Amino acid sequence: MSDTPAENVKPSFRSDVTVELVKHTAGDSDVLWAARVSTAGEQSLDELSKDPERSKGLINYLMRDRHGSPFEHNSMTFFISAPIFVFREFMRHRVGWSYNEESGRYRRLEPVFYIPDEERKLVQEGRPGKYVFVEGTQAQQELTGRVMSDAYLHAYEAYQEMLDAGVAREVARSVLPVGLYSSMYATCNARSLMHFLGLRTQHHDAKVPSFPQREIEMVGEKMEQHWAKLMPLTYAAFNANGRMAP
Ligand SMILES: Cc1cc2nc3c(=O)[nH]c(=O)nc-3n(C[C@H](O)[C@H](O)[C@H](O)COP(=O)(O)OP(=O)(O)OC[C@H]3O[C@@H](n4cnc5c(N)ncnc54)[C@H](O)[C@@H]3O)c2cc1C
What we know:
Elements: E1 12-14, E2 18-25, H1 28-40, H2 52-64, E3 75-83, H3 84-90, E4 97-101, E5 112-114, E6 123-127, E7 130-134, H4 138-164, H5 169-172, E8 181-188, H6 190-200, H7 214-230, H8 232-240
Parallel strand pairs: 1-5
Antiparallel strand pairs: 2-3, 3-8, 4-8, 6-7
Helix pairs in contact: 1-2, 2-8, 6-7, 7-8
The structure holds flavin-adenine dinucleotide.
């Protein structure tokens, strides 16, 4: 793959993350279908329409009593664009997840960098395990934007200089910061997604509160919106039972 000529490479700054649902086979009937083999043997794929109230009750029972495996017979693939530091946290989720990320060895990494917007609370108060984030001052906001963009541009110039001198991409990338955007496909099932959401989002229904970094939470919230539409009964049962993965 050939790189874009250096003169055409324009740095840009973002404050958001992108999450697209690129493919899926996921529905509430997948849960029912898998669960009912326990008591009734082979099932038809259209389980939901048989008795909607009973189906709802069964999904809630499975969630409440933590019968988790029926929630694994489905698949969702997301295309995610977010800063590298988000992906470092994301890829700690090992079970029920598959990842493929763009390569810094085979292509030039584009100069797209993260700068928090004014919604992102900048100041941490309290101690680890018991802290809150509060708004920064306007001066802190301006400082953060200025210092980050200066550092990013400086780092990218160093990267570019090495590439122009013929240094391999895999070596030159060492100077790039974790605020650089990357992209990946991430495939999961409803059970592994629920575990992720329980840890990486804050929600008033959560039985066990978590304190995720805001930027991975932004990714989680977008995945959650997609999933809620695909599996509304499972999603409702997840919330009703304290947002713990079964
Ligand atoms: C708010 C927050 C702060 C964090 N801070 C840090 C930090 O400072 N440093 C740091 O290194 N990480 C940190 N993490 C990452 C955290 O420790 C987990 O690695 C991450 O949340 C993935 O969770 P998991 O292992 O449960 O998920 P998965 O890897 O998807 O595993 C799912 C479940 O499978 C089981 N499982 C998986 N692997 C094993 C195994 N080897 N042995 C036994 N059971 C297993 C467990 O029940 C586990 O919950 C943080 C996470 C959060 C949410």
